[in-house]
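Supplementary Note 2. Why include the ligand at all?

Several targets in our set were suspected to adopt different conformations when bound, so apo predictions alone were not considered sufficient. For every target with a known small-molecule partner we therefore ran a joint prediction. The input for nicotinamide-adenine-dinucleotide is given below.
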Amino acid sequence: MMQNLETKQIDIAATLIKKASRTVVFTGAGMSTDSGIPDFRSPDSGLWEKVDPFEVASIYGFRKSPAKFYSWVKDLAVKAYAAEPHPGHHALVDLQRQGYVEAIITQNIDGLHTKAGSTNIYELHGEMRTSTCISCFKTTFNTQETVEKYIEDGEIPRCRHCNGILKPNVILFGEQLPVQVFQQAQEISRACDLMIIIGSSLEVAPASNLPLLAKRNQGKLIIINLEPTDFDSLADVVIHSRAATILPEIVSRLENN
Ligand code: NAD
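The joint prediction is reproduced in token form.
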């Protein structure tokens, strides 16, 4: 019964994608759990253990105790650097190459869409590839190298020019989103006629306002998420399942129809 419902929803999703002329994908941390990177809100997620991410992963927490921040973020960083894109990421690449998807807006900082080969990606919450010195702001550093060194020697990563503390170029809670990237994401959300939302609890504003922009402009919404979200009632199709299995199924449905 459940299987039939899911099959039907995949059919409807494929039809919506075929009919749409401007489709935008919007992903959250749930897009990456199938690649082994925990999200924030799934039950028993590793990132909730021992610390409150909202405290350590905030700009206030970072300024108060960079040591606490680094001790928490190192596990996420190591997982992100080791992670490989899963079949769902590759399915999005296929959809883009076949002309079905125009852009990918992501809240993820792990760079997996880029690694998979997607293009036209808007990283709303920054990225883990680089870090910037918060004293001189002049130099960017490779975060993987600085985190690996931190794991080795336990010393907080510092600028080799002015000895200031390095901050990975991710947007922490309490920080403003990158203005230009967010404006562009708002524009394409307004202009799209279909938004596919994958693996986001849609609880983190202002990113979570983007589906509302799409909806207000008559865009249709497809939600693919393990658990229900507050936006489910607004969506045209809701699939409560895994990104890594559903996205390839949608691609094969499109190919076979
Ligand atoms: P979230 O943790 O609030 O929600 C994730 C949602 O994904 C949950 O509702 C969960 O049910 C769903 N989910 C989990 N696994 C799934 C799967 N395999 N398939 C489909 N759905 C799945 O994530 P959010 O909405 O992105 O907000 C969290 C914030 O934390 C974001 O700002 C993000 O930048 C950051 N974050 C990023 C990463 C990453 O880059 N991979 C990891 C953790 C947190």
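The radius of gyration is 19 Å. The chain has ten helices and nine strands. Comparable summaries for the other entries are listed in the accompanying table.
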